[in-house]
Write a structure and sequence with these properties.
alpha/beta; two-stranded antiparallel sheet; TIM Barrel; 372 residues; eight-stranded parallel β-barrel; 13 strands; globular
Length: 372
């Protein structure tokens, strides 16, 4: 029976425990996409704190796929020296690190990318005013190649694997969703057609990195948007992707416009509000036949252990708790099994836009408040 803090091999990646720092936009890279010392130090701290696997903040595979400032790049060989230095320092502290790869598609920002956004179809996402340009078949092929080259670059840089970002309404997810994919060719219509882009990305990434290199994907169990992908289709898509060569699936949910059912929900103040994508992970794991991870509101180690014992997931992913407590795994391992102190306020993300990197505003305020 799997245990939370035992050593394991998950999706071809040997890890010291089954806890993953899920991919988090940190806003700590320079204008070229190279990691700053602040980001490298953060990853070192996470590795020292005992995290089994660190997933980087989403790294753009092509310049036009960039969404936010301070975002990591994986699009150019000039980044290799800084990326190699990053992975070496994580490995020196006993950690494992995989690169999350993304093209933001219709969520890309002209302000930060310098290019108009592109998507499967000219359909604007909720909360995004600019209508994207529909990709031509030549454009699709270019993006597929971009993912493959980025994955090869990640491998050369020493990352222990890659994760394709297919959740939260980015380009891979936009192709999967009938809401944003209105194409009438072989990339649209049926689920098999809407999955074709993700399959081509997976196969080209596999060809570029070799059959033994770990290739994961992050996938929505539900977009939580009218007309978006729902669990029934998500389960079938997961099976198709596993057959195409995906080694592990991290299950999430929500997109821009999902409101209270967004990926990063607030007010997770009871155990009953935790693990809000659990049913999705359970169903996808049963169909896909590959290791599955659960992300979304995990805070209590006893619940995480119960999820593993139940067979609903093979690894457990968290983001916001590690922003406040990068040493959380070490705390749990030492016997202090109190739930994560993160209050799920989402105040951590604004500094990524305004102060050069995310941090826990609650923790900072507590440190700066005089006591006694």
């Amino acid at each position: 029976m799997p245990s939370l803090l035992e050593q394991a091999t998950v999706g071809r990646i040997p890890v010291r425990n089954r806890i993953v720092r899920s991919a988090t936009w940190e806003g700590m890279c320079d204008e070229t996409g190279a990691p700053t010392e602040r980001l490298v130090s953060l990853y070192e701290t996470l590795a020292e704190g005992g995290v089994g696997l660190i997933l980087t903040g989403y790294a753009f595979v092509l310049p036009e796929g960039k969404q936010n400032p301070g975002k990591m790049g994986m699009h150019d060989d000039s980044l290799l020296p800084s990326l190699k230095a990053l992975t070496a320092r994580v490995h020196a502290r006993g950690g494992r690190i995989a690169a999350q790869l993304v093209h933001a598609g219709g969520q890309a920002s002209r302000r930060w990318s310098g290019h108009p956004p592109v998507a499967p179809s000219a359909v604007a996402l909720p909360h995004y005013q600019e209508e994207p340009q529909a990709l031509s078949k030549e454009g699709i092929a270019r993006v597929v190649t971009g993912f493959a080259r980025a994955a090869a670059r990640a491998k050369e840089a020493g990352f222990d694997g890659v994760q394709l970002h297919g959740a939260h309404g980015y380009l891979v997810g936009q192709f999967l969703s009938p809401l944003t994919n209105r194409r009438g060719d072989e990339y649209g219509g049926t689920l098999a057609n809407r999955t074709r882009f993700a399959v081509e990305v997976t196969r080209d990434v596999r060809e570029a990195t070799g059959k033994e290199y770990p290739v994961w994907i992050k996938q929505n169990g539900d977009d939580f948007l009218d007309g978006g992908i729902t669990l029934r289709e998500a389960v079938e898509a997961a099976g198709i992707l596993a057959d195409a060569g995906i080694d592990a699936i991290e299950v999430s949910g929500g997109t821009p416009g999902s409101g209270e059912r967004s990926a990063a929900r607030t007010q997770i103040d009871t155990v009953g509000k935790e693990a809000y994508h659990r049913e999705f992970a359970r169903a996808i794991r049963k169909r896909a036949g590959v290791p599955v991870g659960l992300v979304g509101g995990l805070r209590s180690p006893k619940l995480l252990e119960e999820i593993l014992r139940s067979g609903d997931a093979d690894f457990l992913s968290m983001s916001r708790p590690f922003i406040r407590e990068p040493g959380l795994v070490g705390r749990w391992g030492s016997g202090d099994t109190g739930r994560a102190t993160c209050i799920s306020c989402n105040g951590c993300f604004l500094p990524g836009l305004t102060e050069g990197g995310i941090y826990c505003v609650v923790e900072k305020k507590a440190r700066e408040t005089p006591h006694g």
